[in-house]
Write a structure and sequence with these properties.
It contains 4 helices and 4 strands, in the order ααααββββ. The chain has 119 residues and is α+β, with helices and mostly antiparallel strands. A 4-stranded antiparallel sheet has the order 1-2-3-4, with helices on one face. The radius of gyration is 27 Å and the shape is rod-shaped.
C-alpha cells in the first residue's frame, strides 16, 4: 500500500466568512448618515440652487441670503428621522396655496446634507 494514503490528513481549516467587516461598514455608514442629516438651512440652499437652475439664471447672493432662503425656510416643514429627513414644501403652482388647507405639497427626502430626492 501507498503510505501517502495511510497517513492521517491534517485537520481541515474552515474559513469563516467575514460578517464582522460588513457589520462594521454598515455601522459606519449609519453613523455618517446620522451626523450629516440635513437641516432646513441645507434644504433651503438646495432649493435656491434648484430655483436658479429652473430659471436659467443666477440669483444674486444678497437677494438669496436676504430673501429667498428665509422664505423657503419659513415655508418648509421638516420631519427628522435621525438618519434622514423628509421636507415638505407647499406647491406654489397650486391655486389653493393661499387658502387655509394649504393645498398640495412637494416632498423631498434629504440625505448626507447634499442629496435631496423628490418623492
Amino acid at each position: 500500500m501507498n503510505s501517502r494514503y495511510d497517513a492521517p490528513s491534517p485537520a481541515r481549516r474552515v474559513r469563516r466568512r467575514s460578517g464582522g467587516k460588513s457589520l462594521l461598514v454598515l455601522i459606519l455608514v449609519l453613523i455618517v448618515m446620522a451626523v450629516t442629516n440635513p437641516g432646513k438651512e441645507a434644504f433651503s440652499e438646495y432649493s435656491v440652487k434648484n430655483l436658479e437652475n429652473t430659471l436659467g439664471q443666477e440669483i444674486g447672493d444678497g437677494i438669496t441670503k436676504q430673501v429667498a432662503q428665509p422664505v423657503i425656510e419659513s415655508l418648509t416643514v421638516r420631519d427628522n428621522y435621525i438618519l434622514f429627513s423628509v421636507f415638505s414644501v407647499p406647491d406654489l403652482k397650486n391655486t389653493n396655496f393661499f387658502t387655509r388647507d394649504g393645498g398640495a405639497t412637494k416632498k423631498y427626502i434629504g440625505l448626507f446634507k447634499i442629496l435631496f430626492i423628490k418623492l
